[in-house]
Amino acid sequence: MPDTLYDVVILGSGPGGLQAAIHASRKKARTLMLGRMDNSSLYWAHVENYCCQIKISGEEVLKTGRKQAESFGAEFRDEDVLAIEPDGPLFSLKLESGDEIKSKTIILATGSSRNKLNVPGEKELLGKGVSYCVDCDAGFYKGEVVAVAGCRSAAAGGAVALTNFASQVHLYCGELDVNEKLRQQLVETGVVLHEGVTIKEIQGENAVQSVLLDDGSTQAVSGVFIELGAKGVLELTAMLGVRLDENMKYIDADKKQRTNVPGVYAAGDICGPPLQMAKAVGEGCVAGIEAAGYAKKLETA
């Protein structure tokens, strides 16, 4: 078995993913959890409505959970996934570092919220040039000039992917926070990096026409891709063919946390409300156990 083959790979860094890692690794499944802890909304919160805890910081919860999972053999990599696709009975994942791994199962536990810029024009022009999903909408911008907002792997990876469609890609961020290999890809693909410059307004009447920057200048663009953080529900489901609910917002999973794609599970806020840690932990428990069992059956088969 190659070193890059896992039984269970968990995408996400919150309580649902951690609980899945704990249970999957206790089932002796080779388990890898991907994502940066501070990407979880819980990291910055305080918890006072969780059973048996009066008040505790989210950061403490996550750090303790990671230690628990590691004690059972789970592995962790503080990086994001740039691409994921089916590979026969397995799944192939390309990571921020450039490494490629394979897994028998995937657990999606990335949360549901889509970080916003909160600038004028963003809400008004959503779907009219403003997008939160490069993988969903890149094809609409063939030969166009586009802007990407964000400082981490989703933004940098999205900007690189857009160079396959757009005539020019501008990436705006305060301080780029990616590894050297991904930064080099930006250079090699011709992405125009504006480090230290951010978008203050998205302009246009019935469609995006330009962005106003915090240095007072403007840049004519046809599209603005807002990619703040890691890959979200839209990108991941688009890559895998996972079915969403009728509002196209949450993943449709059954009581065993199975999606419509065999070997793909989901847990936590990505599955819909109530958006509470207690629900995420419970679903993570089920997803971890089920994914480990599926991986074992696949190995036997």
Automatic annotation (TrEMBL):
Q: Where is the FAD/NAD(P)-binding domain?
A: 6-284
Q: Which Pfam families match?
A: Pyr_redox_2
List, in alphabetical order, the Gene Ontology terms for molecular function in this entry.
Answer: oxidoreductase activity
InterPro entries tied to this protein: FAD/NAD-bd_sf, FAD/NAD-binding_dom, Ferredoxin-NADP_redctase_2
State the UniProt keywords alphabetically: Flavoprotein, Oxidoreductase
Q: Which PANTHER family match?
A: THIOREDOXIN REDUCTASE 1-RELATED-RELATED
Q: What is this protein called?
A: Thioredoxin reductase
Give the species this sequence originates from. Answer: Pseudodesulfovibrio indicus
